[in-house]
Amino acid sequence: MYDFDLICIGSGPAGQRAAVQASKLGKRVAIIEKQTCIGGVCIETGTIPSKTFREAVRRLYADPGIDHGTPTARKARPSMDQLIAQVDNVVAKESETVQDALSRNDIEVIRGRASFEDPHTLVVDGISSKRRVSGANILIAVGTRPAEPRGIAADGKVVVTSDSLLQLEKLPRKVAVVGAGVIGIEYASMFAALGVQVTIIDKRPRPLEFLDHEIVDELVHQMRKQDVTFRCGDGVSSMEVVEHGGQREGLIELESGKHVVADMILFSVGRQGATDALNLPAAGLEADDRGRLKVNDDHQTSVSHIYAAGDVIGYPALAATSSEQGRLAACHMFGKEAQPMGIHFPIGIYAIPEISMVGKTEEELTAARVPYETGIARFREIARGQILGDDSGMFKMIFHRDEGTLLGVHCIGSGATELIHIGQAVIGLGGGLDYFLNTVFNYPTLAECYKVAAFNAANKIQTVQSLKQRKAAKAEAEAPA
Ligand SMILES: Cc1cc2nc3c(=O)[nH]c(=O)nc-3n(C[C@H](O)[C@H](O)[C@H](O)COP(=O)(O)OP(=O)(O)OC[C@H]3O[C@@H](n4cnc5c(N)ncnc54)[C@H](O)[C@@H]3O)c2cc1C
Ligand SMILES: NC(=O)c1ccc[n+]([C@@H]2O[C@H](COP(=O)([O-])OP(=O)(O)OC[C@H]3O[C@@H](n4cnc5c(N)ncnc54)[C@H](O)[C@@H]3O)[C@@H](O)[C@H]2O)c1
Q1: pLDDT for residue 61
Q2: What is the DSSP string of 297-357?
Q3: I want to staple 17 with a disulfide (CB 3.0 to 4.6 A). Which of 141, 217, 326, 472 is the partner?
Q4: What ligand has the least distance to the C-alpha of 126?
């Protein structure tokens, strides 16, 4: 007899959701968490703090109605303390909400760092005691930690990762961001909106390569207007902290020989699975070179009663997908039927301006030789865009040229991460052009973008069809009898 039917290691979205699902099925469940804050990276240092910081930047400095963050002349630049105050508040409330949910569902929270003793037994190292617990099933939901710079320590002052960024005492004046992925771009755009001088460095030629290129071009254009410098296609050759006029500063040398000086360096080149402390060999498991675990479609590792979900299994590594993976893992271990997670999940980048996408990009469709047409709507042509004062937002839909089905939606501008869900529903239900051409939305709303972009795509498709028909008719008329 084991102590629990399920033990989840980690209280992030994957662990939480698995635990609640198992409890709803009448199972005895525990969550082990090493941090004081319950809620995972998601609540403690990741999603929630970064999004709350963004909101504080917009509310305290950038004009709240405008997503591209133009500072209003009247406002004085806020201090780090002012920006962080709201973050601490929201983190505490969110963590409390999670703890309430766990307690309502009779889930035992065990404090300490877990490691395997054998495939069913975990040792939990708490602050003052050690405890052994056994589980019929175990879910590894330990998430990730930031990759650390090589040859220099992230001191939390001059060199920071997303774990320590929001503990800064002072707003920096010059920031260098190494790694133009989601974390790097989100924070870079927030600092730029605060009037901080930002340089972004990435060894790849473009930031956020997985996004539709037209949308990223628009983002780069808007960030350059905020004086952001992009140093892409150039790796970091060395990084050091130097004393200069009584101040400590970061000095980066790029592979091309260029130098970047900053009073803070955000190191954001990706994340590693947090599996090193788990003593995986005792469970018969092994992680890959980035600390991640391999699972099958049911989220089982190679040891069938040990499951893994969330960031520790890699892509897509988002809060919502991690939750769903946790729930599905719990359903599978206790024989509850569940549909697999839909493939059309949205991606939201909370930069200033906001970006969101669902479905395919133009680049993916071109590579796969899928015939498509795009429809564009610009926020400046949409009444709600004018009302919001957002004249730079852009919205794009991609339709299959012959079948009219919706293949992708891409948006940059106010409300992008909310707006995308209409497209997600239509893609999921196999709808397309006809739906948008025949549907009436509330007015004035940003949803009008769907209508405008659909007409734009329909007109382009119609023009090509007419030209083709005319060409065919001409060819027929000229053909010898
Ligand atoms: C700066 C930042 C911003 C982000 N923004 C977004 C966003 O806007 N939208 C979005 O969808 N996603 C975002 N993410 C990603 C999102 O936070 C993750 O996808 C999500 O938190 C993953 O959930 P998880 O359950 O896998 O684990 P995590 O949330 O990573 O939680 C894992 C937990 O396991 C605990 N743990 C680890 N090892 C042990 C051990 N040995 N014993 C006990 N406990 C252990 C950790 O302390 C942690 O609490 C962001 C991430 C970062 C870093
Ligand atoms: N809004 C969101 O959904 C959101 C927000 C933040 C984070 N996240 C999650 O966090 C994860 C990690 O984010 P991230 O931004 O740290 O990683 P990432 O993998 O998204 O980006 C890392 C970037 O660093 C670059 N890079 C790597 N090594 C480099 C080097 N030596 N020099 C210069 N550039 C280098 C890469 O080319 C890449 O562009 C994301 O994959 C995502 O799952 C999601």
Answers
A1: 83
A2: TTSB-SSTTEEE-GGGG-TT--HHHHHHHHHHHHHHHTT---PPPPS---EEE-SSS-EEE
A3: 326
A4: 1
Helix (H, G, I), strand (E, B) or coil at 281: helix
Tens digit of pLDDT for each residue in 116-143? 999 999 999 998 899 999 999 999 999 9
Report the C-alpha gap between 93 and 31 in whole angstroms.
19
Contact 179, 269 (CB under 8 A): yes
Pairing of strands 29-33, 108-111: parallel
ipTM for the assembly: 0.96
Burial class (CB in 10 A: 0-12, 13-18, 19+), 462: exposed
pLDDT digits (tens, 9 = 90+) for 436-468: 999 999 999 999 999 999 999 999 999 999 999
Question: Rounded CA gap, 330 and 107, in Å?
Answer: 14
**Cβ(423) to ligand 1 under 6 A?**
no
* Predicted pLDDT of residue 72: 53
Q: Which domains does the chain have, with CATH numbers?
A: 4-146+272-333 (3.50.50.60), 159-269 (3.50.50.60), 354-476 (3.30.390.30)
At which residue do the structure tokens 């930690």 appear? Answer: 145
Q: How far apart are CA 364 and CA 212, in angstroms?
A: 9
Nearest-angstrom CA–CA distance, 58 and 86 = 12
173-194 pLDDT tens trace: 999 999 999 999 999 999 999 9
Instruction: Answer whether 25 contacts ligand 2 (Cβ < 6 A).
Output: no
Query: What DSSP string describes 12-73?
Result: SHHHHHHHHHHHHTT--EEEEESSSSTTHHHHHTSHHHHHHHHHHHHHHTB-TT-TT-PBPT
Question: Which run of H or of E encompasses 362?
Answer: helix 362-367
Nearest atom within ligand 2 for CA of residue 311 = 43
**270 conformational bin, left if phi > 0, alpha if psi -120 to 50, beta if neither:** left
Mutate which of 42, 133, 162 to test ligand 1's pocket (most atoms within 8 Å of Cβ)? Answer: 42
Ligand nearest to the CA of 206: 2
Q: Which amino acid is at 116?
A: F
Mean pLDDT along residues 422-438: 97
Average pLDDT score, the chain: 95
